[in-house]
Amino acid sequence: MCRWAAYIGQPIFLEDIVSRPGHSLIHQSHGATQSVSAINGDGFGIAWYGERPEPGLYRDIYPAWSDPNLRSITAQVRSPLFLAHVRASTGSATSRNNCHPFTVGRWSFMHNGQVGGYDAFRRDADMLIPDQLYPFRKGATDSEALFLIALSEGLDSDPYGALKRAVARMVAISRTKGHAPHLRLTAAFSDGETLYAVRAASDDQAPTLWHRWSDSRGGRAVVSEPLEETEDGWEVIPQGSFCTFRGAEVQIRPFLCDAEAAAA
What we know:
Distance between the termini: 29 Å
Largest sheet: 7 strands, antiparallel
Shape: globular
CATH superfamily: Aminohydrolase, N-terminal nucleophile (Ntn) domain
Strand order of the largest sheet: 3-2-4-1-10-9-11
Helix content: 10-25%
Order of helices and strands: EHHEEHEEEHHHEEEEEEE
CATH architecture: 4-Layer Sandwich
Number of domains: 1
Structural class: alpha+beta
CATH topology: Glutamine Phosphoribosylpyrophosphate, subunit 1, domain 1
Number of helices: 6
Strand content: 25-35%
Number of strands: 13
């Protein structure tokens, strides 16, 4: 299981989420407390939004705690919206193309979880990606496949419905050719204006997800684990939730995680 953190609000230095807090994302990369694995050392990545519609992207295969370039970038770059991820591989190779976040145009996407038995139906998942989007398939992860399938399902116009349909298609293949748990999912994605997050699973073991508004930052953090273990105000995002964050506004909707969602 991976760990990730996202932020939306007034521009802040990336380090305010990624490296400075006591239980920052870098700290979680070697000391996670709410994950099956405490070590998330199979690469990292950051996607951030600035003056242009498309996000900046920095990814590498080194453990986040050992990369001085990451600390330098996060200390200098300010952004009103960014996604950061530290990876613990569930089977695919440790390579830059398999590191999150993934980006296409103005969209960025990152995922923590698994699709049960993915190695047995990787080709089937790839077949769900249409020809016009397949050139963006750079790696071999289930996460990137889910992102591209969601784009093909209409992420631009209907983020909730598109992700729900993409999840349903992956779960359906896992039930036919894979194994349980068919899907465990926390994901964050953005078009540069709105931050979306989902927490769901085909069983009752969805990965952890929290959020908190900070008056001092003027923004909201959405994270796998709270950034300060003694800090008040962190709220658990319930399993089976799809969240929309715009400034201080929060909208939470139920999110089915089953093949039944394809028809909903």
